[in-house]
Amino acid sequence: MYKVHRYVGLQVTLENPGPAFPGQLVVRRDPQRPLLPGSPRPMVLPAEEWKVICPVEVPEGKSTHRILLPGHLAAQNPKVSLLAGDEVCGESWVEGLPLDQNFLLFLSLDREIAEGDWGQWLSGAESGSEGPFKKVLKYLPPQQLPPDPFWFLAADVLLLTPRALELFTPDQLQAVKEWA
Known about the structure:
By secondary structure, the chain is α/β, with parallel strands linked by helices. The chain has helices spanning 71-74, 111-115, 117-122, 162-167, 170-179, and strands spanning 2-3, 7-16, 21-28, 51-58, 61-70, 79-84, 87-93, 98-99, 103-108, 134-139, 157-159.
């Protein structure tokens, strides 16, 4: 789940059974692939301009790389390719659920918040609580919060309790501070 009008953190894991090599991760829209339901219409740009290129060093074995994509590109159902020179070494589709600017994403780090009055209000269960925005509430156990704000860029609001904060590692607490 990501916001169309914000940047999206993409993690790419590679497994290279051979020797290390310099490569490029290229994320581009495939004009032949249909758009996801709810995706914004593509801007009037040639398909070759709908791409992000990230140079990478691909070591022998397993490696993980992070790319920051414009949300508009992520919403166009793109493909990520690993290139060595002009040779395509591997490809995969970027997946996720695009949310437009009319959505507010609430990330709850306490189950009681997600299942209590806040959860009911955010789900629109109370009459008249819809407002100008659609609200989405997602629960994430505090132990699973990534220690890097890069991974929760889509959240508009983090819902915390003292109990959840007590479960954070120092890196997670720093990530929340950086996000705020």
